[in-house]
Design a protein that fits this description.
RNaseH-like_sf; HAT C-terminal dimerisation domain-containing protein; mainly alpha; globular; about 180 residues; 2 domains
Length: about 180
């Protein structure tokens, strides 16, 4: 059960700084694996992870980065998940300069979600997993200027394990070090 969480911690503690969307996606996979491994006891471990996540990180920002990541949006069928749409709405509201810009960005979201316009181009589809998400949005989000500006800001955010090392996960540092493992 713990191996899945260990993979996420190694990702955020690695030499390359991962994006928030990737961290959220890996954590979602880890939770699914934990449930599959032991449905009876999974809730105890997941409750601890969720509690730590809520206290240390902006869940809405991570969820939005996951939702707006071109590789995850269509592969994981995220289009109409209420929890993710709520997070996107919240983050767009916070990052917009005014309510009109927020409304415009949310209106533009349907083009990305449904693969309309340049998002449906064969090259856009082929490069969803290959290009850096920010670069992908720069290339294919050109007609959605309001949403593209916000999305690139969100997708450019990175994650690290420093918050974990300072607080609840400090025991992990006793077990795992780059030199030891």
């Amino acid at each position: 059960m713990i191996e899945s969480l260990y993979e996420v911690l190694r990702l955020v503690d690695g030499d390359r700084t991962p994006t928030m969307g990737l961290v959220y996606a890996k954590l979602e996979v880890a939770k699914k694996r934990i449930i599959a491994a032991s449905a009876k006891y999974a809730h105890m471990l997941i409750d601890i992870v969720e509690d730590s996540w809520d206290r240390q990180m902006s869940r809405d920002l991570h969820m939005t980065a996951y939702y707006l990541h071109p590789g995850f949006q269509h592969e994981d069928e995220l289009a109409y998940r209420d929890d993710l749409l709520g997070a996107v709405t919240s983050v767009v509201d916070r990052m917009s300069r005014n309510h009109e810009k927020a409304a415009a960005a949310l209106n533009e979201l349907k083009y990305f979600r449904e693969g309309i316009g340049s998002f449906g181009d064969p090259s856009a589809i082929a490069s969803r997993q290959k290009l850096d998400p920010g670069e992908w949005w720069l290339s294919y989000g050109r007609s959605l200027t309001t949403l593209r500006e916000i999305t690139i800001r969100v997708l450019s955010q990175t994650s690290s394990s420093s918050g974990c090392e300072r607080n609840n996960w400090s025991t992990f540092a006793l077990i795992h070090t780059k030199m030891r493992n």
